[in-house]
Amino acid sequence: MIEWEVTPRGVRVTDADNAEVVVRGDDIAVDGPGSDVPRPVDETICVTARSLEFPHAVVYAFALEGDERYELDPGGEPLSLSAREYLVDVDTEIKSYVRFSSAATIERTADFESIVVSFPEPTNVVLGFRSRHELPAETITVPDSPSALARALSYLASSHKTTSPDRTYPTLRGHPPLVEPGDRLDVPESLRASSPESGIELLVSPEYESLYVVAPLAYYLQATVRPIDASTATTFRPRLRIPAFGVDEPLSRMPDLEETVTRLLRKTFFLDCLVRNAGPYGTTLAASSLLEELDLDAERLYEASPQRRLARYLDVPFSAIAGQLPDWHLSTYVAPTYDRLEALPFLLDRLSLIYTPRTSELAGRELVERSLDEFYRDRGVTVTPPRGGSRPCSGPPHKYRASTGEVASVDVVKPHLRDGRAHGWLADGVPIDVFKSSAAAYENRLAYLERTSDATSIRVVLNDPEMAGERATVAKIYRQRADELPIDVTVEESLRTAELARIFESDHDFVHYIGHCETDGLRCSDGYLSTSSLERCRVQTFFLNGCGSFYEGASLVEKGSVAGAVTVTKVLNDHAVRVGSTFAKLLVHGFSIERAMRLARRRIMMGKDYAVVGDGTHSLTQGEHRVPTTLTIEALETDDAGDDLFRVTFDCYSVRITGSYYVPHTEDNDHAYLCGQKSQFELSRTELGSLLRETEASVIYNGDLYWSEELGDAFDP
């Protein structure tokens, strides 16, 4: 759902996911709802303006008569268009289109903050907008029967807006219908009508374990899932069939089925991303030349049926593309039981791989040693951590965040992780290196999508005066961001239990708690607040930066939150300050809860003391148009002229927009890269300094984490 309003700044467009685009213009006049735009859109608006300004984005212009396509130079050169009818594609957080009949100039502002489309005179323009996220439209009821679940899976792809390779774009994959338990299979008639036979079939054993694993592949391929006869399940191998083309491809049995599905989904999705370049939304990806090497005709495949296209992809060996594949963005480990089926649509919406959870115990001091190994490895140091004794430290003795009282202990285990940048856990146990989610977290997220407010509400709670340093630091970070985004920041101190309870029971988007956490709950000036005592939590996200806060955070999710950062043991006070301040910076710049914590905790030796509960893929500031970016800087040897050289690696991705692309803004680059696909460039000191000043990104340099604006001046000649 798209809503728009006229403001003094122009036209403000929002969607149900709180994403936002503001279109500014010189003397812009809004005439009302618009006419058709030749792309899938949710809303159109007619305006008259001499110029229109959009947030910074990748931009293409298409001549509506003819095949000409023009791309705005990432380096800053303006794009001049002669007088014709055009459609301009602006890839902002809400997909935006500009249709007009006129000459025009499209250019980036000097600070690379905006895109400006200008006309010789006031011109009639149709603006089109499409939300990247949707609320599920229907609900399927499923009884406790694997065969019934198999039939239900066949309808979850009904939310796709196309069967072409363009379904790789997140804006063309809608949220699947919800699934809920019931006494019988009930598929709404609207879903049956919008789910024609795709001609692609997956034959799978009627067991939850296999069905959960194949669900992401079935969803993306829009395949019909058919359970095989239970009497032959022990001897029959799962199969992928395309009857119209005589394809009958045997798949592996469990547990090898996991690897087979992973490879097939990654290959199909990647090749679709390359083939879509032949369509109207195409862009020149850095890996596009691979199609010629594989003897794949992009234009023919783009126009082909899904069955023919998939049949051709099956002829491509996985080894031929393995080196080019972006890392898969998300894997979730799901207990293959009936009571987990409600989470399936949410995982498919994120296009997560699904694996059966497997763990082993952490031996002795393995958790400590793994934390230290990771900390030193990030800094390029090979160290054999000491066996026994206390954690290594230097200087005066460190102080734990909780100095008195008993801290709730968490028995963590070691998960057997598979493909994925991020890992979620929907099973028993508390594993390290994953976010511990639940069906409640995903259902809560839907509730917050429907919540509307004028500003993001952030509450910082300081319940121990000795930790005022963290309070001051994070409050400054949030308030600085409030200069750019509608953020309401309030700092509370020394709250009583009833006052802290009211904070969690009120409508806030984020609560950053700084204080002590013990077995009785969060320490207050008059006692302890156990979050399990709350009637309902109405705080969207949180950070409980106190010792052993895992169970208090998990309770907040069950009571109504989406996700939050917690600790699994005692944490050192100076470590907590470093993690808290870095987490705050990343969170308000659009990083997901999981990614913000993963980056923030690399700043301390005992990073695995921190974890995420709930839906770790959730972002607080989802209206941000930039895809969160991390730069890694490595010093190289000087060149022949004696100038310093640096290798810069761009890591630009978000779990929410898998299939999108980014364009690194370096002087010599003219290619786009898939989000999740890292790109590397060699830059001089001057070029690197300019990049850091013009880019909002987290930066890994000499093993530590910085924000780009902090390092810009350090790389001046």
State the gist of this model.
This protein is of the alpha/beta class.
Could you explain how this protein is built, in words?
With 717 residues, the protein is α/β, with parallel strands linked by helices. The chain folds into four domains: 2-130, no CATH class; 139-355, no CATH class; 359-614, Rossmann fold (3-Layer(aba) Sandwich), CATH 3.40.50.1460; 629-715, no CATH class. It contains 17 helices and 39 strands. The strands form eight sheets. Strands 1, 2, 3, 4, 5, 6, 7, 8, 9 and 10 form a ten-stranded antiparallel beta sheet that branches. A ten-stranded mixed beta sheet has the order 18-17-21-23-32-31-30-26-24-25, sandwiched between helices. The chain has a five-stranded mixed beta sheet with strand order 37-34-33-38-39. Helix 1 (146-153) packs parallel to helix 3 (208-221), helix 3 runs parallel beside helix 4 and helix 14 crosses helix 15.
Low-confidence stretches: 381-398
CATH topology of the largest domain: Rossmann fold
- The CATH class assignment of the largest domain is Alpha Beta
Instruction: Tell me the Rg in angstroms.
Output: 26 Å
Number of domains: 4
CA(first)-CA(last) distance? 50 Å
Task: Characterize the main sheet.
Answer: 10 strands, antiparallel
Give the CA-based shape: globular
Helix content: 10-25%
| Annotation field: number of helices | 17
Oligomer: single chain
Q: How much β-strand is present in the residues? A: 25-35%
| CATH architecture type of the largest domain | 3-Layer(aba) Sandwich
Give the helix/strand class. Answer: alpha/beta
Q: Quick one: how many beta strands?
A: 39
Mean pLDDT: 87
